[in-house]
Amino acid sequence: MTMPAHSDISSAMGAPAVVDDWDDIRLTDIYNAIRPHALRIIGASALSGMLGYGIALLLPPTFTARAVIVSPQQQQNSATATLASLGALTGLGGGGIKSPADQYVSIMQSATVGNRVIDRFKLIEVYEAKFRADALKILGGNTRIAAGKKDGLISLEVDDTDPARASQMANAYVEELRWVTNNLALTEAQQRRAFFEQQLRQTKQSLQTAQSQVQKTGFTAGALKSEPKAAAEAYARTKAEIAAVEVRLSILRKTLTENAPEVQQQTSALSGLRGQLAQLERPAESAGSQDYVSAYREFKYQEALFEVFAKQFELAKLDEAREGTLIQVLDPATPPERRSKPKRSMIALGAAVGAGLALSAFFAFRGVRRIRAS
């Protein structure tokens, strides 16, 4: 014989049906469900807290060493001086890196510096890593490098189980930063010095050739009237500026894309200078003594170009002789006296609170179900 459902009996007797609706749960229901188990919840929470503290005692301590350096100020190099020497083109360099400190943070976070630190302290064996990439990843997780937005100071923190090694690694990052910046500055200066030395040699030969052509055409007053000296010199300066901007553009294209603001600015400047050159060439098309005018123009152009390259060559030689970037350490890393983690009290508190909340939720759910079902 099949018994009717509870809802059917209630409906038949005229009583309202019991609906298992959890939206009608009241705080008193939850409190009444948890109250009988209060001692059990407190005991379990205390036991969980002690267990968490015991596990924290078994964890190896971690020490954090901290170093602070002043954002390095790099000396002006010839790449910057190139625009300064061109007068009207001084403002065409565009905006560089807004925060130099960010550049040095990226250098210390690079794989080059990381691999040198790994080799220096044999971290593959220390971290028990199978591959160098694994050791590099662990090192990155144990290292935090940040630049201050207002003061420009760079803070460096390194975690390690050995306090002495933690401080040595933090100071090693500073030493590697100094090595990388000096090496990059020296290499860049050498490249520019060799480049301008080659350009200077070629321009010197072209200048001698242009001087010979002027001497062959002869020097007459009529030629000077048809092409005044001032106009010829303006033509030479404009053409020299075009050559200098082309050099600047070729250097930028080695490290930047065509969409970079610096490349676009130099391209726009080059287009404007070529337009000026076209205007300066128009009057000479109908002038007399074109042989002398053309030779004289070429001579003045090579002369101006020789002066530009000579200045850049000397500046590159000065940059090559400099020591590079000066890095000042504000707070060198020292072996920390206290561990930074694990936070044993926080672990114990978290275990106790977690266990208490879990048990309270369990008893509340079970008790409310019983209350609603009755």
Automatic annotation (TrEMBL):
Pfam families tied to this protein: Wzz (PF02706)
Name the UniProt record assigns to this protein: GumC family protein
Residues of the Polysaccharide chain length determinant N-terminal domain: 23-119
Keyword terms: Cell membrane, Coiled coil, Membrane, Transmembrane, Transmembrane helix
TM regions (residue ranges): 346-365
Bilayer topology: Multi-pass membrane protein
Compartments it resides in: Cell membrane
Organism: Pelomonas parva
Major place of residence: membrane
Coiled-coil region list: 186-213
Keyword Cell membrane: yes
Superkingdom, taxonomy of origin: Bacteria
Xref: InterPro entries: Bact_polysacc_biosynth/exp, LPS_length_determ_N
